[in-house]
């Protein structure tokens, strides 16, 4: 019995292997006919099933023994519902046609095999892919135990034991093994076909994407020669025809750094299968173009290299923006010097044995807050910029100059002893003096400097910085009063130079104002303040642009807005100086009017300080009786008439009367 059984099993096994051929053949069904593939699979598998059932091992009473249970269960597991149902129906009909004692159990076995195979396709055990073979063995054991149970229950008692004994060993050993081999074979074929489909689809998708892409695209062969490009690539590189580029070596389009080591980088690309890289390509006109290349390898079905797919993005503007961002992150926006962030990073790097002695020099602009508060930040910014230019001029190449605060500069000086640091301070002070003497700026540069030196590696650089800062502030305390006076003096000189009103004008105002003050019995302190006010009431004009001060005709509304700011600026300047603070409020109010229509605050009547009211009269008179670029001087009589006409509106009536009487008395005498 063994030999016929073995022969039948060999024949059945051969027929089972035809299943893999069917799977391979149906793969080549055209895409438009893919919907009929399950039916074709079902018909072919059903045919194999009939062939298997035609060469069974036959037992007494019409009982046949074959491998249809393997075929149908694996069909359900691999091919799915439709092919399995077709196969099960055809097999059941044929088994009934064969007849015999085992016909009914045979149909039951066919149905159970189909149901279990289809159910097992849903992966009820949820095993990992690596344990798929266990999944198949369990399914096969269940199918064939069900088959044995069917034979036991449905065959007559006179034959069931004999049949089960005869088939149990091969059914529970050879059949599961056969199921496993067949399932793994078909599963591997299925994975291969799915991979081929995905690969083909991916290739088609990438090719369509690259052909139609709005971005430059290139494809290289295994040696780095250009296999394909699109129109955008030609446009980017300045070429007219593909034929001029195809077949050329890609590194020939790179700069020297890009060509160096290209072969090694390309080898890594092929090993990894993908790449993201930045290179510099040289256009046909010789223009360097920063590009970002994102690529992948396209493989043949056998896994060998076919070609590359690469998108080439022109990132020249992006690189410029990145470089600008890096520059901004490490440089001061106003002076272009390195900023505090860069200074602190470089301090850590330079604080090493080989840079000893390491000197730190610190500089602080004197009076910057005063200038910002009085003249505005534009003046302060200009002072910072001028100071940075002087510092740059005196720096050696090895020094690191940074702006580390609003008014603070710091220099790191590697391999520089304290004597050399002191020499730098002397050079800076001389350069500042030359700068101030050679220019007519509103504000002179005034810088307090201090230095300290790290000579041993066990010294803390933080302590050295503190020492340099201490030395700087000691110097600042010594220079504070003189620098403050220097700033005010510079403002006074600039005011006289910028405005039409000369020193003679100031002296005339002082004389006329004092005469009014004496007539009104003012105290000596008030008379002195009135004289100082006459000299400095327009000090705020240092912040008014020259184009407005020197305009030969009437000012525009916008220019008047700027001009009307000078009393407030003058107030801030005077209020910041101990010498001038007593007259600060008088400067603020010297353009207010008796009727409240003046500026900046619209004060009226006696709300306006007395000294401001006095100055208002004499300043108006002197302006009318002196020549201007836009008009000739008035006669005294006409100017006095103007004063009289505006008495009670622009001018304090009492002061206007006193002033008119003083001038008329002088005229009579």
Key words describing this protein structure:
single chain, 669 residues, alpha+beta, 4-stranded antiparallel β-sheet, 25 helices, 11 strands
In short:
This protein is an alpha+beta fold.
Descriptive notes:
- The strands form three sheets. Strands 4-3-7-6-5 form a five-stranded antiparallel sheet, sandwiched between helices. Strands 9-10-8-11 form a four-stranded antiparallel sheet, sandwiched between helices.
- The N and C termini lie far apart (163 Å).
- The protein has 25 helices and eleven strands.
- It is α+β, with helices and mostly antiparallel strands.
- Strand 5 (274-282) and strand 6 form a beta hairpin.
Spans where pLDDT lies below 50 across 5 or more residues? none
**Rg over CA atoms:** 51 Å
Percent of residues in helices comes to 55-70%
Q: What's the arrangement of strands in the largest beta sheet? A: 4-3-7-6-5
Shape descriptor reads: elongated
Number of helical regions? 25
Distance between the termini: 163 Å
- SS content category: alpha+beta
Annotate the secondary structure layout.
Blueprint: H1 2-27, H2 37-54, E1 57-59, E2 63-65, H3 68-78, H4 81-98, H5 103-120, H6 132-154, H7 157-212, E3 217-220, E4 226-229, H8 231-237, H9 256-259, H10 262-272, E5 274-282, E6 288-299, E7 305-314, H11 316-330, H12 340-350, E8 358-365, H13 368-374, H14 377-394, E9 400-403, E10 408-413, H15 418-438, E11 447-454, H16 461-498, H17 503-519, H18 524-536, H19 546-549, H20 557-563, H21 566-575, H22 584-588, H23 610-625, H24 636-645, H25 653-668
Antiparallel strand pairs: 1-2, 3-4, 3-7, 5-6, 6-7, 8-10, 8-11, 9-10
Helix pairs in contact: 1-2, 1-7, 2-3, 2-4, 3-4, 3-5, 3-7, 4-5, 5-6, 6-7, 13-14, 13-21, 14-15, 17-18, 17-23, 17-25, 18-23, 23-24
């Amino acid at each position: 019995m063994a030999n016929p059984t073995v022969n039948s099993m060999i024949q059945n096994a051969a027929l089972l292997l035809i299943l893999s051929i069917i799977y391979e053949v149906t793969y080549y069904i055209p895409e438009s006919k893919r919907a009929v593939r399950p039916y074709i699979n079902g018909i072919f598998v059903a045919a194999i099933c009939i062939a298997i059932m035609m060469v069974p091992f036959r037992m007494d009473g019409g009982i046949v023994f074959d491998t249809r249970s393997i075929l149908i269960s694996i069909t359900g597991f691999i091919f799915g519902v439709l092919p399995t149902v077709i196969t099960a129906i055809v097999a059941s009909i044929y088994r009934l046609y064969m007849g015999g004692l085992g016909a009914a159990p045979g149909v039951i076995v066919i149905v159970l095999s189909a149901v279990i195979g289809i159910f097992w396709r849903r992966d009820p055990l949820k095993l990992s892919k690596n344990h798929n073979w266990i999944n198949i063995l369990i399914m096969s054991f269940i199918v064939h135990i069900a088959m044995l149970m069917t034979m036991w229950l449905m065959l007559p008692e006179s034959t069931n034991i004999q049949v089960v004994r005869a088939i149990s060993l091969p059914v529970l050993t050879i059949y599961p093994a056969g199921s496993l081999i067949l399932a793994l074979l078909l599963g591997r074929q299925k994975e291969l076909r799915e991979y081929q489909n995905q690969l083909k689809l991916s290739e088609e998708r990438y090719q369509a994407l690259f052909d139609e892409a709005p971005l430059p695209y290139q494809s290289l062969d295994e040696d780095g020669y250009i296999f394909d490009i699109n129109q955008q690539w030609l446009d980017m590189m300045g070429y007219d025809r593909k034929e001029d580029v195809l077949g050329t070596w890609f590194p020939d389009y790179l700069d020297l750094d890009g060509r160096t080591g290209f072969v090694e980088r390309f080898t890594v690309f092929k090993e990894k299968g993908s790449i993201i890289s930045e290179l510099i390509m040289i256009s046909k006109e010789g223009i360097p173009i920063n590009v970002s290349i994102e690529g992948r390898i396209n493989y043949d079905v056998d896994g060998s290299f076919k070609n590359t797919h690469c998108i080439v993005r022109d990132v020249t503007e992006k690189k410029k923006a990145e470089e600008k961002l890096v520059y901004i992150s490490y440089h001061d926006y106003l002076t272009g010097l390195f900023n505090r962030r860069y200074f602190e990073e470089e301090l850590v790097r330079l604080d090493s044995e080989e840079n000893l002695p390491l000197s730190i020099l610190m500089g602080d602009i004197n009076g910057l807050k005063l200038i910002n508060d009085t003249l505005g930040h534009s003046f302060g910014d200009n002072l910072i910029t001028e100071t940075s230019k002087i510092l740059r001029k005196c720096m050696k190449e090895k020094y690191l100059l940074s702006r580390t605060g609003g008014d603070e500069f710091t220099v790191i000086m590697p391999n520089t002893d304290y004597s050399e640091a002191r020499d730098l301070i002397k050079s800076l002070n001389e350069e500042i003096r030359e700068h101030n003497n050679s220019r007519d700026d509103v504000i002179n540069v005034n810088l307090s400097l201090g230095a300290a030196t790290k000579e041993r590696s066990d010294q803390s650089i933080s302590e050295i910085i503190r020492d340099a800062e201490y030395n700087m502030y000691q110097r600042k305390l010594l220079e504070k009063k003189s620098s403050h006076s220097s700033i005010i003096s510079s403002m006074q000189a600039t005011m006289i130079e910028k405005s039409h009103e000369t020193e003679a004008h100031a002296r005339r105002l002082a004389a006329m104002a004092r005469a009014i003050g004496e007539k009104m019995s003012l105290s000596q302190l008030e008379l002195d303040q009135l004289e100082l006010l006459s000299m400095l009431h327009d000090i705020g004009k240092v912040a008014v642009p020259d184009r407005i001060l020197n305009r030969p005709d009437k000012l525009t509304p916008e220019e008047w807005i700027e001009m009307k700011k000078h009393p407030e600026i003058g107030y801030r300047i005077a209020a910041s100086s101990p010498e001038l603070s007593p007259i600060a409020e008088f400067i603020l109010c010297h353009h207010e009017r008796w009727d409240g229509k003046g500026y900046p605050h619209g004060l009226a009547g006696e709300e306006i300080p007395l000294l401001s009211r006095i100055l208002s009269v004499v300043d108006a008179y002197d302006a009318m009786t002196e020549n201007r670029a836009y008009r000739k001087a008035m006669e005294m009589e006409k100017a006095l008439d103007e004063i009289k006409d505006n008495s009670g509106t622009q001018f304090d009536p009492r002061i206007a009367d006193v002033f008119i009487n003083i001038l008329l008395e002088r005229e009579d005498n």
